[in-house]
C-alpha cells in the first residue's frame, strides 16, 4: 500500500504529474520533473521523502499540477483523483494546497468512502478549508491547522479564513476555546495538530499533549515550516505510528530542526532540509 500526497505547484506551466516522490542531493523530483523546494506542497514533499528514508519506508506518491490561484490546475488534480482512486491501493492521503471547490471535494471524498478499507485522510491548507466548507470535516482523520486556521474552523459561518469573525487577533491565547467551538460545530477532523508557539495534539476534542520546547522564534518567519510538520506527520503515519504519536513526534522534530539549524532571517525552508535526519532521530529516541 502507498501514501499519496495531493497538492499544487505555484507555476502555471507545471503539468499534471503522478508518481513517486524523490528527494536526492537537495533536488526534489516527481515523475521526472524538477521542483524547487520552497514553501507549500514542495516543502511537504521534500520533508516526507527525507523522513520516509530515515524511517525505512517507501517514499510517498504525489499527484500535482501547476496552479497560481486561477484553479485550472486544481481542477485537473480533482478530476485525476476521481478517476484514479478506484485503481490505487492507498494506505492514506494527505491533501494540501488545492483551490477550494466543494463540488469536486465531495466527488473525491465519496470515491474514498467507497474504499474498503478506507484510507486515512489528512488535510492541511486549501483542502482543509474546503473540507470544512463542505460540512464533511468529521470524515477526516487529521487536520493540521495553525492557530489562525483554527479560528476559521471554530467559526461555524465563515466560508474562508479571510472571513473569520473576530478571533484572529488573539487566536494563540484562545486555542482551547477554539478547539471546543470547532468540535461543537462538527468543523474539526477526528484529530488535530495545531501548529503555533505551543503545538497542540487533540483527539476527539480532548487535548492529548501540548509541546512548547525547544522554542525557536527564528523559525516563525520562515515560510514553509508549517508544511514541514505536515510532511513529517505523513511519513510517520505511513510508518504505522498512531495519529497522536505521529503528531507528537512531528511537532517535536520540527522544533529540533530549528534548534539544530540555528536559522537566521535569511534562511529558506530548503536550508533546513540537511538537518532533518538528525532532528527526527533525536525525536524518535
Automatic annotation (TrEMBL):
Residues 104-265 form the YjeF C-terminal domain. InterPro entries: CARKD, Ribokinase-like. One of its GO terms (molecular function) is hydro-lyase activity. The keyword Kinase applies. Keywords: Kinase, Transferase. Pfam families: Carb_kinase (PF01256). The keyword Transferase applies. This is Putative sugar kinase.
